Amino acid sequence: MNTDPIADYLTRVRNAIKANHRVVEIPASNLKKEITKVLFDKGYIANYKFDEDTVQGTIKIALKYHPVSKVPAIRTLKRVSKPGLRKYAGVDTMPRVLNGLGIAILSTSKGVMTDKEARLQNVGGEVLCYVY
């Protein structure tokens, strides 16, 4: 049993990138689906597919690499808020990842979104992870 499913999700993606895999399969949950949609919208992954074959379902993520140099689009995935120590940020204390070049994924009352979208909608929330 995984005590932190989001950390497991990030670790599976991180390991697949290090092994130069094209596709990674992850057990699904609603929060993981929302994180996947944010990563796709911001251009960090090539594509995704939700399979509802089993009871829990799976998420298949096609990872994105540079066509010539084969450098992955995701260089770093870092879990911020952990089950043992939750990290929350208000609108005024919203983190900037790599001075705006990366994104922070937040879980807010209006759904899962990036730090920039949260600033525009004037909401704070739990900082799930940093991606750059």
In total, the number of strands is 8
**What is the string of helix and strand elements?**
HEHEEEEEEHE
Please, what is the average pLDDT?
Answer: 95
Q: Tell me the domain tally.
A: 2
Which CATH-level-2 architecture of the largest domain?
2-Layer Sandwich
Supply the helix-strand structural class.
alpha+beta
Q: Fraction of residues in helices?
A: 25-40%
Q: Give the number of helices.
A: 3
Q: Which shape, going by the Cα principal axes?
A: globular
**Which residues form runs of ≥5 with pLDDT under 50?**
none
Q: Report the biggest beta sheet as strand number plus sense, adding barrel if it closes.
A: 5 strands, antiparallel
- Percent of residues in β-strands: 25-35%
What is the CATH T-level topology of the largest domain?
A: Ribosomal Protein S8, Chain: A, domain 1
Radius of gyration: 15 Å
